Amino acid sequence: MSQEKSIVKEYSNGEVTIVWKPNRCMHSRLCFNGLPEVFDPKARPWVNATGAPSERMVEQVKKCPSGALAFYYNNEEQQADDVLPKTAEGAPEAEVIPNGPLMVTGTLKLKDQNGNHTVQEKRTAFCRCGASSNKPFCDGSHKKIGFEG
User: Fold this and answer.
1) Could you say which of 28, 51, 82 is where a domain stops?
2) Of the residues 64, 89, 97, 113, which has the maximum number of CB atoms within 10 A of its CB?
3) CA 142 to CA 149: how far, in whole Å?
4) Cis preceding-peptide flag for 45 (omega within 30 of 0)
5) Which residues of 82-98 are buried (b: 16+ CB within 10 A; e: fewer)?
6) pLDDT for 53-108, tens place per residue?
7) How many domains does the chain fold into?
8) What is the CATH number of the domain that holds 32?
9) How far is CA 51 from the centre of its chain?
10) In a domain, 28, yes or no
11) Which residues pair with 93 in a beta bridge?
């Protein structure tokens, strides 16, 4: 795992805050293909938190396959809406994405090679192709190398 400091950026419209963790991004393009008035990779900042109603932004952020995008409501009463449903047993769920990453949904504790622990929440995309420059996380390299599996 990279020992670099994790970058976290937040963009708010006052009602909801979008959180972006670029080190987890696998560049699926779902964000800007689905809501280009909010997510524009050519603009700086690339997230315009006032570009669409809060609920549309939340729905788009929930589609992020890697968990690089997340959100929280600034009003504590709405926080319960941000919880993903658990499996019947309450355990994380893992899914092999054809020709892509291992997608884990749920909360898990990850231990790196130095014994340091981090908590991964919601969705985490783990590299299966071996080409990621952000191992163990997927960075979308499987598309560049034509990974099949």
Assistant:
1) 82
2) 64
3) 10
4) yes
5) beeeeeeeeebeeeeee
6) 999 999 999 888 888 898 899 886 555 444 444 444 668 889 999 999 998 888 88
7) 2
8) 3.30.70.20
9) 20
10) yes
11) 105
Instruction: Let me know if residue 88 belongs to a domain.
Output: no
pTM of the model as a whole:
0.62
Tokens representing 146 are 């034509």
Residues 49 and 97 in one domain: no
My answer on whether 48 and 72 are in the same domain is: yes
CA distances from 126 to 20, 30, 135, 141, 143 (A): 18, 18, 8, 12, 14
- CB-neighbour burial class of residue 75 (10 A; exposed 0-12, middle 13-18, buried 19+): exposed
Q: Which residues span the domain enclosing 141? A: 93-145
Query: Which is nearest to 71 in space by CA: 107, 17, 118?
Result: 17
